[in-house]
Every structure is written in C-alpha cells, then in structure tokens.
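Quick one: structure for this chain?
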Amino acid sequence: MRRTGRRDRAARTRGGGRTGRIAVGLALVPVTLAVLTTGCSLQDAICGGGEYPVLAVGSAGSACVPKGEAPPKGYARYPKGEVPEHVGDKWDKYWETHSVDENGRVIDLPADPGE
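Got it. Here's what it folds into:
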C-alpha cells in the first residue's frame, strides 16, 4: 500500500483547481466572441429598435416614433444625413443648438440665458 503525504494531496488538489479554472475560462471564450462579433455598440442609442428619431420644430426637443409612422404634430424628420444615432454623437450635439422651423429650414437656437 502506498502512503501519500500532505504534499502529494496538496499537489493533486491544486491541479484539480487549475483544471476547473481552465474549463471555466474555455467556457467563456464563446460568450466573449459572441459579444464582440454581434456589432453591439457600447453607446446608448437615440431610439430603440423599430423606431426613428424626430426633431421638435423650433426647439431642441426630440422624440422617437415607430418606423412606418409619420412624425406627430410639432415634430419633423431630421434632414437626410444629419440624423443622430447615439447619445453624444456629432449630430446629437449639433441638434442641441439647432432646430428646424415650420418650413423645414435649419435654424440656430438662442443661447440658454442660464449658461
């Protein structure tokens, strides 16, 4: 009969733990790859899926409208090529200080007197 000392048992225990960590690590690889390849953006989208953003006429307000529906009264579509897609993107910042008038012309908004 072979006697095992503490050192032998400790080595086997550590080896088993290492195998478990490796298995967990390997299980996470597909999850990581899926997250990286889905094209998910880390930025917040202006609107949810199935919606598009509209601009409040004469002010810096905006809203989201279901695709296929017309903008509600007092709102207009953003000019083509100038639609914000993510919070803080180039067009989101631009439309904080601009709007469109009732004829669809881009206008500068007055500066906020509180600033």
